[in-house]
Structure to design on (718 residues):
């Protein structure tokens, strides 16, 4: 079969499993993709390539602290720039999926070229490329927009290996291969195994398994090593990466060697099962650390080790692509095997993208020989490839929405992430039923309202139970730190808030914020708990911190509600400055006239009142600049509405000019400015100092003495 026929067939094979996903009518971004595409502050800014390259802060683009993947961020930012700031429509989501499918097709074509370069026949290379294109472990990287980094990494890794296959010492081909390696490293960390894989392929396919011949390419290997080392140094500068590095080798063996090997056996068994029998697949399933031997995983690991030794011996003596494929899998599995890095322990289908290249080579040789053996062999090879395609098509279908993905995961494996998502879904359902209960109560339908409230409570209880189950699973998993279970802990805090257990919700949220300061979910959960406890000012500050990190719709709604309640409370206390600030912030955050009609009317009334008072007072002081009473009232007006920069200079000027009783009056209003309107501990101390100065001149002013005592109580001063 000629290449001009094979190429379109391979592209068609790469796209076929995802046809159902691309044609789905209810598409939405799934899990991490929704954050990295629709809410990513880096992508939203449409940054320059240089800004993406040098910005190594752990933004949403890079998924978590310690991950630096600017090429993935740039590729998603390009899609976002072309298709809008908030790509929510199915057509736009479909475009992101289509682009991922195109990258996958490019990887399949590059693999076919590399297999041919390694000496496989046209039929064997075609069969191996089909296995790579249709294997279900590829689905996660292709079907999720967040998996774009894995696709880019594999594409540039394969391109680099193809270019390296033309390298003699270094030269232009070596420079191009190094460029491809740099692009692969900037896509995902998996490309760090490029050097040993390139040397292995040289030794096996180009140098007749003669080490001296391979070592002649040392300039190219040195370039790759220097590039990888430079990337590692840059990566270590990412916030959170330094902690990961310190836990790599020295702290890694805090566990016993036996425990690490037993855990490794579970991971290898899971990965081998995914490759050979890709069923019961879960999204980001976290394995518990092995604390005692499990016979089957240990047996498989020992068997895999024996096969690796056989492959090394066979490769040295007589060669053969099967031996090379097994060695490739052994090298490529190192970064995700728990042997070097404790991973916490996430196992994911996408982690097998690089090892699958060796699997594809081995499968291509086996299926190619079977097809040449006769009709039965050809039928067997075709059946294997068709089954892989069918499972992939079914797996791709669950990536159309979060609900479909997590319900699929929950059916197969009780993953802690799936349990956390289910808890969030239950909590949202409980909130909707609580709102329904309030509406029914307003309509005097008491019995129905009570039933809705009971259903809301039951949903919140289920959410809490899912969170507890997820945390129990997290506790069994070794981790780089306490981070992996934080989502479940933040969700537990919100579930407790739904059950009106506000103090427990605050304690849970405090634990999240202590471990991961600045994380929007932790601050959002803490703001809700503070709101339930009636600590409005702290709740408002907490939700503002959450919004600095990520402006999710849920956080925006919470922020608007908190600021509105904050304004109502301070209006009742007579503090119009803070009330005005709360109303204005509520309107700025959630600019929805229908939802905030009452807020808008109150804000307009207060603004009209403020403008009218300022106009009258400005006219008075213009006509008579010595009118201290008018100046004092003008300063108080500014203070009431939070315009402190305009109020304070007037107070200070009046203090310089006023004498006697007039000066005491100015000091009294200036103290009120600090105590009532600024409303911070430091402002209360300044107010107390002014009250003390007034009392030194007029000790009999009981109102001033009472206010001084209140200020001291608020600051804790004696």
């Amino acid at each position: 079969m000629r290449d001009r026929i094979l190429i379109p067939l391979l592209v068609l094979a790469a796209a076929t499993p995802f046809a159902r996903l691309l044609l789905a009518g209810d598409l939405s971004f799934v899990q991490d993709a929704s954050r990295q595409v629709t809410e990513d502050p880096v992508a939203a800014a449409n940054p320059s390539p240089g800004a993406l390259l040098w910005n190594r802060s752990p933004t949403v683009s890079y998924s978590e602290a310690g991950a630096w993947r600017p090429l993935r961020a740039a590729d998603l930012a390009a899609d976002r720039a072309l298709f809008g700031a908030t790509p929510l429509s199915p057509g736009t989501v479909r475009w992101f999926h289509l682009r991922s499918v195109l990258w996958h097709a490019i990887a399949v074509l590059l693999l076919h070229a590399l297999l041919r370069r390694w000496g496989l026949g046209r039929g064997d290379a075609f069969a191996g490329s089909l296995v790579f294109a249709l294997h279900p472990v590829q689905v996660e990287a292709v079907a999720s927009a967040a998996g774009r980094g894995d696709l880019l990494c594999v594409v540039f890794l394969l391109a680099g290996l193809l270019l390296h296959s033309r390298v003699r010492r270094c030269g232009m081909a070596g420079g191009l291969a190094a460029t491809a390696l740099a692009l692969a490293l900037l896509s995902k960390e998996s490309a760090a195994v490029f050097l040993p894989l390139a040397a292995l392929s040289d030794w096996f396919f180009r140098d007749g398994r003669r080490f001296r011949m391979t070592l002649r390419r040392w300039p190219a290997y040195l370039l790759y090593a220097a590039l990888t080392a430079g990337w590692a140094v840059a990566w270590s500068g990412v916030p959170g990466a330094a902690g990961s590095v310190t836990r790599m080798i020295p702290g890694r063996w805090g566990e016993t060697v036996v425990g690490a090997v037993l855990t490794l056996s579970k991971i290898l068994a899971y990965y081998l099962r995914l490759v050979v029998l890709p069923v019961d697949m879960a999204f980001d399933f976290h394995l518990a650390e092995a604390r005692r031997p499990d016979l089957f995983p240990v047996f498989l690991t020992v068997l895999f080790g024996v096969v690796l030794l056989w492959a090394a011996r066979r490769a040295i003596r007589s060669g053969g692509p099967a031996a090379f494929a097994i060695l490739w899998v052994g090298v490529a599995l190192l970064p995700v095997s728990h042997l070097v890095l404790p991973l916490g322990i996430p196992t994911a289908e996408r982690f097998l993208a690089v090892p699958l290249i060796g699997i594809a080579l081995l499968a291509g040789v086996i299926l190619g020989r079977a097809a040449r053996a006769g009709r039965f062999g050809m039928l067997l090879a075709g059946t294997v490839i068709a089954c892989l395609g069918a499972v992939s098509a079914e797996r791709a279908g669950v990536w159309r929405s979060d609900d479909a993905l997590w319900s699929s995961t929950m059916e197969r494996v009780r993953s802690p992430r799936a349990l956390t998502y289910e808890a969030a879904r239950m909590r949202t359902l409980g909130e909707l039923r609580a709102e329904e209960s309030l509406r029914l109560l307003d309509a005097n339908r008491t019995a129905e309202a009570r039933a809705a409230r009971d259903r809301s409570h039951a949903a919140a209880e289920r959410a809490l139970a899912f969170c507890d189950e997820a945390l129990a699973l997290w506790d069994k998993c070794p981790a780089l730190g306490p981070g992996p279970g934080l989502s479940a802990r933040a969700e537990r805090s919100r579930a407790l808030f739904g059950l009106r257990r506000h103090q427990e919700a605050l304690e849970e949220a405090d634990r999240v914020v202590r471990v991961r300061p600045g994380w929007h979910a932790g601050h959002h959960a803490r703001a809700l708990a503070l709101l339930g406890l009636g600590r409005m000012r702290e709740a408002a500050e907490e939700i503002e911190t959450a919004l600095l990190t990520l402006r999710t719709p849920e956080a925006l709604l919470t922020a608007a509600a908190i600021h509105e309640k904050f304004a109502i409370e301070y209006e009742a206390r007579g503090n119009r400055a803070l009330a005005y600030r709360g109303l204005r912030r509520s309107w700025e955050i959630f600019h929805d006239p229908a939802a905030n009609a009452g807020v808008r009317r109150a804000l307009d009334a207060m603004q009209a009142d403020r403008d009218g008072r300022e106009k009258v007072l400005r006219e008075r002081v213009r006509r008579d600049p010595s009118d201290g009473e008018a100046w004092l009232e003008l300063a108080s007006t500014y203070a009431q509405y939070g315009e402190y920069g305009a109020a304070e200079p007037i107070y200070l000027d009046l203090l310089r000019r006023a004498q006697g009783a007039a000066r005491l009056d100015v000091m009294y209003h200036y103290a009120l400015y600090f105590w009532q309107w600024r409303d911070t501990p430091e402002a209360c101390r300044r107010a107390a100092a002014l009250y003390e100065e007034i009392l030194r001149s007029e000790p009999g002013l009981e109102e001033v003495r009472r206010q001084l005592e209140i200020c001291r109580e608020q600051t804790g001063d004696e």
Summary: Residues 57-65, 240-255 have pLDDT under 50 and may be disordered. The radius of gyration is 33 Å. The first helix runs from residue 3 to 15. Strands lie at 285-286, 346-347.
